[in-house]
Design goal:
The protein has 464 residues and is α/β, with parallel strands linked by helices. The protein folds into two domains: 236 residues, Rossmann fold (3-Layer(aba) Sandwich); 208 residues, Rossmann fold. It is built from 16 helices and 15 strands. Helix 4 links the parallel strand 5 and strand 6. Helix 8 packs across helix 13. The longest helix is centred in the N-terminal third of the chain and has 21 residues. The two termini are 32 Å apart. Bound molecules: GDP-alpha-D-glucose. The site of GDP-alpha-D-glucose has 24 residues, from helix 1, helix 12 and helix 13.
């Protein structure tokens, strides 16, 4: 079988115990075919633009990495990927900043990646590119003559064309998607936004059908909902160490532990969540002292102003709730602004009666699936899930909420902490079955099947 070359902004060590689901999934995909994982090594180095690719073998996978220069990091990574594309793709035009130098940096790093990859690959290799940092990479590879099968998976939402219209040069950016053979999205909503964008930008006479022909190339756009490695998460949540942690957590008088875990990112809706929790304490005074919200929010992209602001806002909100409601024997909000080991997270999920997952916009949201997997099957907790997470599309037995509506979230919290066992069992059983069906292996295999299969291309006479 031909080799697989995975490309993502950062390369993770597929053998590291703490690696998340994506690193493991990509690692597994690569081991099937003696593959290569290409990307940034996380270092900033002044000679980066001249330095070559470092090759290293890890657990059957070749890691091919390179550093970025300071100016590449400032423009490609911070400037365009995270100050422009991330907010736009999360429907936050108010936070997007567009800067021609940042765009130039983004183009030039994609060109540099393409040159290095072109030197590494054989014509029979299959290339799988990940996420918004690398949208134009296939187009750059095509310019260098690559005729390989190339796929792209977008981990974050694809916004409606009315939002994309505000992005300078969006025609250039999204035209480059047509250099791919397969383009994958998380949900039907993302795919439908993409199809509408294509229809509008091409002044198409009717709805787009896939595989779709644009000039000489044909492209299949489809949904591939990402999942988790369910059994390994269950195992992690049920070790003797996890059980001991849960016993320590649940020793006191607090009966209802509510857990939230996410990178401190404005897309995750943390200030709204804290306001909803405050509303819950106001409206259901009998639940005070029985309930604690534990929020784990490790820092991310701290150099960007929007992230520094949200950090300050959360500190104020949690301080104000604890000041107004806390007592000498009860702290309502435990806010941890640090990364926590993965096995500790699994234990905390298992020991919490409620998983509170309320992003304002999210591609999928793996935390929702991890919370469900970690529950005791005979006494499970309740998942509260934002309707704006991609995961809501197939997790309808969660308590689905509008994260902007503090009263609705407060009521869902009350329903969750008072829900009878029969209802919890019923909801959890159905959710776990769905999380199992759409797991990480199913995601990887579905994408790889379409990417490796030239039959996903239309017959030569089909036109869009
Ligand atoms: C993007 C899209 C899409 C969180 N805090 C800690 C920690 N985590 C782990 C979680 C989970 C992962 O990080 C986060 O995944 P999410 O899916 O929730 O969110 P993003 O990071 O924004 O991921 C998202 C995903 O890509 C996959 O396609 O679902 O929509 O935005 O696994 O448990 N892990 C550890 N310590 C922490 O403090 N060890």
């Amino acid at each position: 079988m031909s080799r697989l070359v995975v490309v993502s902004n950062r390369v993770a060590d597929p053998t590291a115990v703490q690696s998340g689901g994506l690193a493991v999934a990509v690692g597994d995909a690569l081991q099937d075919g003696n593959g290569i994982w290409f990307g940034w090594n996380g270092e900033i180095n002044e000679n980066a633009e001249k330095s070559g690719v470092n090759l290293e073998r890890r657990g059957g996978v070749t890691l091919a990495t390179l550093p970025l220069s300071q100016s590449e990091y400032d423009t490609y990574y911070l400037g365009y990927s995270n100050r422009a594309l991330w907010p736009v793709f999360h429907y936050r035009l108010d936070l997007a900043e567009f800067d021609i130098q940042a765009l130039e940096g983004y183009r030039s790093v994609n060109r540099r990646f393409a040159k290095s990859i072109a030197a590494l690959i054989d014509p029979s290799d299959v290339v799988w590119i990940h996420d918004y940092h690398l949208i134009p990479l296939a187009a750059e590879l095509r310019k260098l003559g690559a005729e390989n099968r190339i796929g792209f998976f977008l981990h974050i939402p694809f916004p409606p064309p009315e939002i994309i219209a505000a992005v300078p040069d969006h025609g250039w950016l999204f035209d480059t998607l047509h250099a791919y053979d397969v383009v994958g999205f998380q949900t039907e909503q993302d795919l439908s936004n993409f199809n509408r964008y294509v229809e509008q930008s091409m002044a198409s006479a009717g709805p787009v059908t896939h595989p779709f022909r644009n000039g000489t190339r044909k492209m299949l756009a489809k949904t591939y909902p990402i999942g988790i490695d369910v059994d390994s998460f269950i195992t992690m949540a049920h070790t003797p160490k996890a059980t001991e942690r849960i016993q320590r957590l649940t020793r006191g008088e607090v009966r209802n532990h509510v857990i939230g875990v996410e990178r401190l990112d404005y897309s995750k809706g943390l200030p709204d969540r804290f306001r909803s929790f405050r509303r819950f304490l106001e409206q259901y005074p009998d639940q005070r002292k029985k309930t604690v919200l534990m929020q784990i929010a490790p820092p991310t992209r701290g150099e960007l102003a929007a992230y520094a602001e949200i950090r300050t806002e959360l500190e104020q909100l949690s301080g104000a709730i604890n000041g107004a409601f806390g007592d000498f024997d009860w702290t309502p909000v435990r806010y941890i602004h640090r990364s926590v080991p993965r096995d500790t997270l699994a234990a905390l999920f298992r020991g919490s009666k409620v998983g509170l997952v309320t992003p304002l916009r999210d591609g999928m949201n793996l935390v929702a699936k991890e919370y469900v997997a970690a529950q005791e099957p005979d006494d499970p907790g309740v998942l509260i899930l934002s309707r704006f997470a991609g995961a809501a599309a197939d997790m309808e037995e969660a308590l689905i909420v509008n994260p902007y509506d503090a009263d609705e979230v407060a009521k869902a919290l009350y329903n969750a902490v008072t829900m009878e066992l029969d209802e919890r069992l019923d909801r959890h059983g159905k959710l776990l079955a769905r999380v199992r069906k759409n797991d990480i292996a199913a995601w990887r295999m579905a994408f790889m099947q379409d990417l490796r299969n030239p039959e996903t291309q239309p017959p030569p006479d089909q036109t869009a």
